[in-house]
Amino acid sequence: MVTRRQDRTSDGDLTGNVLFSDGLPPAVIDFSPYWRPIAFASAVVVADALVWEGADENLVEAVAHIERFDQFLLRALIYRAVTDRLFRQDQPIRPDAADPYLRAVELACRLAG
Protein backbone atom coordinates (compact mmCIF):
# COMPACT_ATOMS: atom_id res chain seq x y z
CA MET A 1 0.00 0.00 0.00
CA VAL A 2 1.34 3.42 -0.97
CA THR A 3 0.69 6.28 1.42
CA ARG A 4 1.27 9.98 0.89
CA ARG A 5 1.68 12.50 3.63
CA GLN A 6 -0.37 15.64 3.21
CA ASP A 7 1.44 18.71 1.88
CA ARG A 8 1.68 21.31 4.65
CA THR A 9 3.48 24.23 3.02
CA SER A 10 5.14 25.36 -0.16
CA ASP A 11 8.53 24.72 -1.78
CA GLY A 12 11.09 22.65 0.07
CA ASP A 13 8.51 20.49 1.80
CA LEU A 14 10.51 17.36 2.48
CA THR A 15 8.07 15.76 4.91
CA GLY A 16 4.86 16.21 2.94
CA ASN A 17 6.08 15.03 -0.43
CA VAL A 18 7.36 11.54 0.24
CA LEU A 19 5.61 8.31 -0.74
CA PHE A 20 6.03 5.26 1.46
CA SER A 21 5.36 1.66 0.49
CA ASP A 22 6.25 -1.54 2.33
CA GLY A 23 9.44 -3.10 0.96
CA LEU A 24 10.44 -0.05 -1.11
CA PRO A 25 12.64 2.95 -0.30
CA PRO A 26 10.84 6.27 0.25
CA ALA A 27 10.12 8.16 -2.99
CA VAL A 28 10.39 11.95 -3.08
CA ILE A 29 7.70 13.55 -5.24
CA ASP A 30 7.10 17.18 -6.17
CA PHE A 31 10.83 17.85 -5.85
CA SER A 32 11.63 21.53 -5.24
CA PRO A 33 15.40 21.94 -5.30
CA TYR A 34 17.15 24.83 -3.64
CA TRP A 35 20.35 25.03 -1.62
CA ARG A 36 20.35 25.02 2.16
CA PRO A 37 22.78 23.44 4.63
CA ILE A 38 22.13 19.73 5.10
CA ALA A 39 21.57 20.34 8.81
CA PHE A 40 18.78 22.80 7.98
CA ALA A 41 17.03 20.18 5.84
CA SER A 42 17.25 17.74 8.74
CA ALA A 43 15.86 20.39 11.08
CA VAL A 44 12.91 21.07 8.75
CA VAL A 45 12.06 17.37 8.71
CA VAL A 46 12.29 17.20 12.52
CA ALA A 47 10.23 20.39 12.90
CA ASP A 48 7.53 19.05 10.57
CA ALA A 49 7.48 15.73 12.38
CA LEU A 50 7.09 17.46 15.75
CA VAL A 51 4.46 19.96 14.60
CA TRP A 52 2.37 17.98 12.11
CA GLU A 53 3.11 14.27 12.53
CA GLY A 54 2.85 13.96 16.32
CA ALA A 55 6.48 12.87 16.77
CA ASP A 56 7.81 12.48 20.28
CA GLU A 57 10.46 14.98 21.32
CA ASN A 58 12.92 12.09 21.70
CA LEU A 59 13.23 12.36 17.91
CA VAL A 60 15.96 14.94 18.47
CA GLU A 61 18.20 12.14 19.77
CA ALA A 62 18.42 10.88 16.16
CA VAL A 63 20.02 14.16 15.10
CA ALA A 64 22.09 14.79 18.24
CA HIS A 65 25.26 14.24 16.21
CA ILE A 66 24.57 17.33 14.06
CA GLU A 67 26.64 20.26 15.25
CA ARG A 68 24.53 23.24 16.38
CA PHE A 69 21.29 21.38 15.63
CA ASP A 70 19.50 23.49 18.23
CA GLN A 71 20.11 26.59 16.10
CA PHE A 72 19.01 24.88 12.90
CA LEU A 73 15.83 23.67 14.61
CA LEU A 74 15.00 27.18 15.83
CA ARG A 75 15.47 28.53 12.30
CA ALA A 76 13.42 25.72 10.77
CA LEU A 77 10.55 26.42 13.15
CA ILE A 78 10.69 30.15 12.40
CA TYR A 79 10.67 29.36 8.67
CA ARG A 80 7.70 27.01 8.98
CA ALA A 81 5.70 29.25 11.35
CA VAL A 82 6.14 32.32 9.14
CA THR A 83 5.29 30.37 5.98
CA ASP A 84 2.25 28.84 7.68
CA ARG A 85 1.04 32.28 8.78
CA LEU A 86 1.54 33.77 5.31
CA PHE A 87 -0.69 31.06 3.85
CA ARG A 88 -3.34 31.65 6.51
CA GLN A 89 -3.55 35.46 6.53
CA ASP A 90 -7.33 35.39 6.21
CA GLN A 91 -7.67 33.21 9.33
CA PRO A 92 -7.47 34.35 12.96
CA ILE A 93 -4.28 33.83 14.92
CA ARG A 94 -4.47 30.59 16.87
CA PRO A 95 -4.63 30.84 20.65
CA ASP A 96 -1.66 29.24 22.43
CA ALA A 97 -3.72 26.19 23.40
CA ALA A 98 -4.41 25.45 19.71
CA ASP A 99 -0.99 26.42 18.33
CA PRO A 100 0.60 23.32 16.74
CA TYR A 101 4.05 24.95 16.95
CA LEU A 102 4.04 25.63 20.69
CA ARG A 103 5.38 22.25 21.85
CA ALA A 104 8.15 22.20 19.22
CA VAL A 105 9.18 25.80 19.94
CA GLU A 106 9.36 25.10 23.67
CA LEU A 107 11.57 22.07 22.96
CA ALA A 108 13.82 24.07 20.62
CA CYS A 109 14.20 26.82 23.22
CA ARG A 110 15.15 24.26 25.88
CA LEU A 111 17.74 22.75 23.55
CA ALA A 112 19.20 26.16 22.73
CA GLY A 113 19.02 27.15 26.43
Topology:
Blueprint: E1 2-4, E2 18-21, E3 27-28, H1 38-52, H2 69-87, H3 102-112
Antiparallel strand pairs: 1-2, 2-3
The DSSP helix count reads: 3
Order of helices and strands: EEEHHH
Helix content: 25-40%
State mean pLDDT (0 to 100 scale). 84
Largest sheet: 3 strands, antiparallel
Are there runs of 5+ residues with pLDDT below 50, and where?
1-11
Strand content: 5-15%
Strand order of the largest sheet: 1-2-3
Mass-distribution shape: globular
What structural class results from the helix and strand content?
Answer: mainly alpha
Q: How many angstroms separate the termini?
A: 42 Å
Question: What is the strand tally?
Answer: 3
Whole-angstrom Rg:
14 Å
Defining key terms:
8% strand; globular; 113 residues; mainly alpha; three-stranded antiparallel beta sheet; 3 helices
Give a structural overview:
This protein is mainly α and 113 residues long. The chain has a domain of 79 residues. Helix content is 40%, strand content 8%. A 3-stranded antiparallel beta sheet has the order 1-2-3, with no helix packed on it. Helix 1 packs across helix 2 and helix 2 runs antiparallel to helix 3. The longest helix is centred in the C-terminal third of the chain and has 19 residues.
